[in-house]
Each structure stands twice: as structure tokens, then as C-alpha cells.
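Tutorial sheet, problem 5. The three components below are modelled jointly, 1079 residues in total.
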Amino acid sequence: MGSQQGALPRRTVPTREARRPKGRGWGERYIHYWLILPALLAMCAVLIYPLVYSLWISFFDWNVSSADKPFIGLRNYAEAFTSASSHYIFAQSIAFMVICIALEFVLGMALALLLSRKFVGRSLARTLLLLPMLTAPVLAGFNFRWIFNDRFGLANQILLKLGGQPVAWLADQNLARATIVLVTIWQGIPLMMLLLLAGLESLPEAPFEAATIDGATAWQRFRHISLPLLRPVIVVAVALRVIDLFRTFDTVFIMTFGGPGHATEMLPFYIYRAAFSSARFGFASALSYVVLGLTVLALIPLFYVERRGTRQAQA
Amino acid sequence: MKSLTIARPTTAQRNIRWRGCVGAAATYIAVIAAVVIMLAPIVWLGITSIRPVTEITSVRLNLLPQEPTLRNYTTVFERYKMATYLKTTTIISLAVVAATLALGAPAAYAMSRFTFFGGKAMYGAIIFFRMIPPVAAIVPLFMVFDQFRLLGSYQGLIIAHTAFKLPVAIWLLRNFFMDLPRELDDSARVDGCSTLGVLWRIALPLIQPGLAATAVLSFLWTWNDLLITLILSTRTDTQMLPLGLTKFVLEYGVDWGSMTAAGVIMFIPTLLFVFVAQRYLIKGLTLGGVKE
Amino acid sequence: MEGEKHTMQHPTHAETRPTLVSRRTLLRGALAGTATAALGALLAACGAANPTATSAPAASAGSAATGASSAPNLKGAKIVMLVPSFQALGDSYMEAEAKEFETKTGIHVETSFLPFEKAMDKQITLVAAKSSEVDVFGTHYAQIGRFGEAMVPLAERAARDKVVAQDYVAGSFDALTVNGKLLAIPFTYDLRTLFYRTDLFEQAGIKAPPATWDEFVDVAKKVNRPPDVYGFLEVGKGDPVLREFSDILWENGGDYLEQGLKPSKPIWNNAAGVEALTWMQDLVWKHKVSPPGTASYGWEENSQLFAAGQAAMSKQWGPSGTEDPQQSKIVGKYAVAPIIKNKSARTTAICHARGINISSKNQDAAWEYVKYVTAQEQQLKFSKAQGGRPAHVAALGQARDAAQGVVKQNFEVSLAQSKDGYTWPLFPQFSEVQPILWGEIEKVLSNQKTPKEALDYAATEAEKIFKRANLI
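Model answer (C-alpha cells):
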């Protein structure tokens, strides 16, 4: 860190000058709006209208196959919260998210610690480990469906070679869930690793030196120095994964289509099925808003963890 | 002779050196194991793609192809429309990169440099846009594009992809701009530069790594995205590669050979960019903390 | 990155780790953004049009256009069609056919093919958006119920141009009629037959293919050599598993509803139904003659695995993949038999069909095209190109006579059993029930529920749906 003094909390408050350059005409005075406008228009045109529209139809029994689409108020939302199948999907989605994040965190942290050591080829290793996260989810899905194919897949060929019996990976509820988790973390670990690695590299050296002199073990240093200092990074990484995992669609769509018997069906796919298999767009839209709400709910605890951390740091 | 002049290391020193060696060896073993495990699925994809169909549909393990063939690669061009998919996907991805940078960079610059009414809302909106499950927007998006006669056209696909990439791109570029000292701007302004001038002549050249990272990521995300092409392309000539890939799993048969060959072709840009632009990519991904 | 550190101060980042995004702003932004957007959505929603109001005119416009213009000049018209893929062979034939059609009529046809389920989902999207982007839909018995309000009624045009029910396979016009409106013209005729491996049967000393459930299990056990070769392959997931269950349900004398195809109380969970599903489950888990992966097999796996020589018996729609030497290891090693009977010989007999999007702006041109591809001559050509069965009776006869070898055998066997052809209920609400049913059957095949529990649950849910629509 070149100049630590610059990293002090010195929030530059823009001067009036910078905020609103005077005497340069109308265009220059509102230049920030002009700069933002094109991007804002593009996003609003393409993203806002669909959102508003789907909120609107979420109050209707909006079904393609029937001519009338009556207003039903909050009944779609009531169904989303009360029906047994929704409960199953909610529980499953949340369990999926928690398991994936936990595994990604542990494995991502292990890789980050490994790569934070100095060795020849470190940069190459880090680059190679990036590949999974930049693989198309469609391709990852197909590829794992192929590897876990119960007849010709690599996984079963290896099992057979080792004297085991072939396993029907995608036809058993728990194995299918495990397979989906595997693909998801395969794509998710690299990001976790990158963020944690960047965090580890920016940690100050002094506390570690002091702890080593005091005879702390590697685990103690990690547990009592690295982890607390990394908290902000961890919060960001987890928040990003929460957002992404609540949107997981391609993998399920490609690998299991939600099966066997809804065992791998998560919220986005449930929405898809409500819309396309059942043609109930009103219900599907209501579900979409429930998912958005859930994402926000999941972020709130993180927000508090973060605030508490900041207060402790200030004290 | 030389060794004589050197003091023999003490046992303790030797111990440390020995432990260092073991540590290094352990590090290498662990790193190699991790890389092998993480890359094995991709390697297997490549290996499958050069097997003949009869080998693909065999229950017995043969790690290496017994009769390697490029037949799957010719098949995807002859029996399937791989050439069309590649052309369409390349054109659209490049156009999206151009549009994303052209729209995203000014917006990101404004957000990094000015505080103004609505700025926070804009910032919130950008994060909010990232949280939308894309499935939620399918039908309404389709309706809008239908009304503007943009379905199944290059323009439509470019606009939609750009809009979905913009929030992340702005976020990313904003972080790069924040990293630039404002003093540079201010001194240029004192010299009489307009804001646009500062952006064009000072700020943009300085965040070239950021532009590169944003360009590469927008390209790959467009190249890899299934949902938008699944929704918006209504004709064969505007279908993109990810949708093309789903066609190898047809109604009455799975053509694993062709799928893996097409998959390898689809994977080339990822491989290329990860190696060519790794520094920018890593910086972009950690600085923005983003992943789509 | 690479140790590249930031040497300058940061405008807003207060932490010591400027390489990372400010997480507080991220979280705060997420919450603020949500609030902003939700507010905006509420305000805008007040101004949005009522979706109920807009649906009626579209429907009436469609039917008004039907009676208009008897001989319009359609040269230069452009239409788009979206149909399920018939694999590389079928698709390239349809493209060539579209070009031929253009030289004859001057109507340009753009073709688009998608795998079956994706094509149907895309069509639903088009319909929901009232889009005129696509004119011709490829549809199917399995889907037609959902399109009751979405396709142009064709009865008048068909009568005017002498496209009549007698020319097509029995019952097909009725099946494609929803709420009293004929919505599509039959295109292919689909029946399944039992494909069996003659070489494996010979090795095991079996003289004739099985004809009843009991014989079937015996034979399957005799040729069963897991994990290399299984006795029988059945489909086990999604929409396909419902087709498999349909056959077995009917073979066992059961049916879906109390009054057959009419909206009525579900009876698939009665003794006959439970027994049928138990038999399906037993093939995998008790007799172990079907692979444990069954619950992950759709049509694609089913035909691929049989072609790869992984099973001794399997029900197939036709010999296309199995005859392709590039894909198949069993060319010349299999024959075709009628599907198994138990208490009844009823079997699934269904059609792919071609219809017109109700929002299409080129309905006359679209009709010309639909008429063209469903006529005798074109159906025969299509059959020759990809080996399927035409839905046009005369073309079907010609195709059968022209066929050879196992293709001919398949024609003969399947047409002989077509007198027992049957289908599942086709009214719209049943389409909504189907995903529930297939999800439950998947649960049975993957041992998450007993057949009785699963079928009961599906019946309860179905009753709710029927009641909501005032059908029972």
C-alpha cells in the first residue's frame, strides 16, 4: 500500500465548484445528468417496464388458456405463501443457498490461503482457477449432465472401475441435489477465492508479526486476526452469492428440469414452471416479487453483521 | 572447495530449510490437486469431443480416446447450424461490448465524480437491477420487444443484452473511476477542459485496464447467456450459441458427441480472454466484486 | 492486480482495502433500490392498462378475418413459423419445403425450430404477449388445450378448401378441437411400438416378443444383464413419463377421469391406477429390469440408450435414431412388436399439427402454408425424408407401401394397433394438471413416495383446479 495516510477515512466532499461548474452554459451545468441519461434510459426502457408490468399482472388470475383474466387482489401472493408446494420450494431454495455458500466459502477460503503463499506458477494457477466461473452455465450444466450420466458418464465409469456399482446420479433425490450443488459451487468457488485472496493480500502485516512473536499458531492467527479483518470482504462475497444463488436457473433447467419429482426445483425454476408449464403468469409474477423480497430479507442480516463490525472497529 | 569455506548449517537452520522444502512441496501438491480437480470437467469435455460415437456410448472407462476423430467438429457445421450461431453470437457480443462501454463509461464517470439529486437512487437502482431474477422479466420483456418490432432482430438482442449488462458494467467502471485521483480532473479543468474533455482525454485513458476488464466481461457474459436469446430470438438466424447448444439434446436423442464439440468451440473465447486479459479480469472482478 | 496497489487516496472508500468494493454501499443500495423501485412500480401500475380489457378484441379480430377475402393476392407475403424440431433430417427437409412453397406461391416462409418443450414455452410467451411475430405454430395434442384462446379457428377455411376430417387419421380433428373450435390440422401421426433386440432374444432362447404384463416381466428378466444391458427402458421424467404412464394406465383398464375425456372427477388414483404405477415402479426397483436412472430419462435418453445397445426392449415412436449408423450400434439387430396389453389394448395415438397464431397479421398466407404442408403429397414427402407417419390417411397408406425393412414393419405394427388409439383429456385445465401428475410420478420412480400417496395427492390438487374453473 503505497500511501497509507491516504487511506484514512477522508471522504472528499465535492466542492460546489466541482458539483456544479458555473458559467459554462446549460449543457455543462447539468453535465452529470447528460452523462447518465443514455444509460438510464436504456435500462429503464428494457428493465423497468417489465417489472412494473409483472407487478401489475401479479394481482390477476392471468392465465393464457382462459379468455378472462379476473382481478384477484393478493390471492396469488397468498398462494405463494401458503401452498404446500411453495413451502417445499422455499425450504429447498434456502437450504440450497446456505449449503452452496458454506461450501464455497470453506473451499474458496482454502484456495485463497493456498494461493496467498509465494510460489512459482502462482499467477498461472490463479488464472486457471478462473476458468470455471467464466464457463457458460449452459455449458457447465450440459457438461456435468454428461459426466454424471448414469450409463456413460465419467463418474460412473470410475465407480465401475473401482469395483463399485453405477449410481443413478440424476434420478435419486439426494444425489441429484448434490450434483446441482456441485456444479453451482464449481462455478462459484473461483469468485469467492478471488475476493478472499484480494482481501488477504491487503491485510496489514503488523498484527501477524506481533501474534507470531507471541507464539500464536497459524490457526490462531487465522481465526483471531485474518477472519475478523476479512469480515467486510466476506460480507460482500456472501451478499453477491446470495443475489446470484436466488437467481440460479440455467443449471437446473439444463441438468434436471427440476426433477426427480421437484427434488432440485428452486425458486427461479418454480417461477418458470408456473409461467410456462401451467401458463399461470399472474402467479409466476407474484412469485417473482416474493423472490425479490426474500433476496432483500437475506441481505438484511448481512447488513447488521457489517454495521456491528464497523462499530466494534470504531470503538 | 567452496563448501569448505561455508559454515555448516546448524541443525536448527537445517530443520527450517527442510520444513520449508516440505512446505513448498505440500503447497505445490495442493495447488496442482486443486487445479486438476477444478479443470477436470473441462478437460473431459475436450476428450469426449474427439471420440467417435461408439466410444462415447460405452460403459467402460477409457480415459483417452482409442480412435480420436474430428468428426464431431465437422458434424456440428454440417448437420447443425454452428456457423450461423458463431456469426450471430460474435456480431452481437461485439456490439454489446461497444454499446456497454459507450453508455456505461459516461454514466460511471458521472456517478464517481458528482453528487447530485437522484444519484443515490441511481446507485440503488443499479444494485436492484442485479437482483432481479431474469425469469421474472421474460414475458413483459417479450411484450415490449414485440411492440417495437425488435423480436428476432440483431438490434433487439443487442439492446436487451446491453441493458442487462449495463448495471454491472457501470458498477465496475465506477469503481475504476473512484480509484483515480480527482486532482487530475481538477487540474485539467483549471486548464480549461470541459467535463467531456476531462472524461475523454484524462479519465478514460487512465482507466484502460477497467475498460478492458469491462469489455472482456461483457463479451463473455453475452456470449454465454442463454435466457435472453431463448426469449428474444424467434428465428434460426438470430439464435445464439447457448441456445444452439440446447439443440443437441433433441426431442428424440442426445447427441453428446456434437454437444461436446460445440461446447469446446463455445469455450474458446473464455480460454483466450482468461489468458490474454487475466490481469484486467482479476482486477475487474475483485474491484467491482462482481459476477453475473 | 499482481501486487498493483493504489497509491492515491480514495474519494469515498474509507477502509484500508481500497481494492474491494464498499460493502456497506452495496447493502444499503440494495435496500434503497428496492424501495425506490417498488414505489415506482406502484405509481406506474395505476396507469397501466387492464389486461382483461385488451384480450377480447384480439380474439374477435381473429375470427372476423377468418371469413374475409376468398382469393387474396398473397404474393410477397412473409410468414414466420415456429415448430418443434424433428431432428436434423426433418428440419432440413422443412427448410427445403419452405423454399419450394415460396417458388410456387410467392409467400416467403421463415423457419424456426426448437426442441419440443422450448418450442411450446416460446409459443406460450408469444401468445401471452399477443405477439404477431410468428404466424404458424407447430402444435400437438399434448399442448393444444393450453392454446384454446390462442389460435385461429380453422373450421371455415378448412371447409372452403376441402380439408376434411375423413382424410386424416380418425379422431384427430376432434382432438385438435378445443371449446368447439378446430385449431390445427394434423401433420404427423405418432404411435409407439415395442422395439426388441432380436440378437439378445435369440441368445436367451426367447421365441416371440411378450404380449402380456406377466410375460413381459419374465422375458425382461431373462435378457437382463445389468449394468451393460437392461431388460427394458422406460421414460421416467417430465411430460414423457406421463405418456408412459398413460399407456400403462390404459393397458390396465384405468383412465384419467371418470367420464373419459370430459371434464370430470379424477380417477387415476383408483385401484387400476395405483396398480399401473406400482407396476412401473416395480420394473425399476423390484424386478430391476429397468435402470435405476429411469427417473432421469426423457425421450432423448430413451432412444439414445436403446440405439446404443443398452437395453433389450423399449417403446419407441419410430426407427429414426436406431437406423442411423452414425448414432446406432443396433442396426439390423432389432424388430418391432405391438405394445404390451394387459386388461385393455388401448394405446397413445397422437398427432403433431400445424395451426395459426391468433394474433398473426398474415392469416391468409399462413393458412395457405398450413394447407400446403398438411396435404397428402407434402406429408408423404416429409415421411420419406425422416421416416415418420403422415397424419393424412392416404399419404399414410402410400408411405407404408413404400417403406422397407424395419420401417415397414413399424408401419404395419403401429397401424394395426391404431384402432385402439386413445389420448388423454385435452381440455385446458387438464394441461395445468399434467405437470403436477408427472412430478408425482417422478417421485414414485425415485422412491420418494408410494404410488398411492402420489396419485392421491395429484388427484386432490387436480380437483382443486377443476373446481376453481367450475368444471366439477
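Marking note: Chain C touches chain B through 69 residues (CB under 8 Å). Full credit if you identified this.
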